[in-house]
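Re-run with default settings, no changes from the original entry. Doing this only to confirm the output is reproducible before filing.
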Amino acid sequence: MFSDQSFVKLRHSIYSLNYHLVLVTKYRRPAINSDILARLEQISSRRATNWGGSLREFNGEADQFHLLLSLPPTLDLSKFVNSLKTTSSRIIRREFPEQLSKYYWKPVFWSRSYCIVSCGGAPLSVVKQYVQNQDNPE
């Protein structure tokens, strides 16, 4: 069942937790260009590493970007997302003021909302069947 997943070992646990995170610019403005996207990848990778995880895949469009992250089970996802959004917004606004001034007059970059979806591994139906088929102790 778990043959194609990569597991991370901690002192008292082993895990494989992958998440698809989508962040959207404020008002869905097309404020992200290729330079900003490249910088966002660097920031995201560093932030994931600092929180004990890793960035597995990254891409984006003019108004959003997508991350595939592997994160530890000890991590509070909402705090991680808040940290990533705060850090990246501050850095991007500082390093690309001329690009962002076309779209924003206030010090904003990200929408308040985000989407995070757990992914990887077997489909829920397979996991459910696996759990149901365990031998009951006598």
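Residues 77-95 form the longest helix (19 residues). The chain has four helices and six strands.
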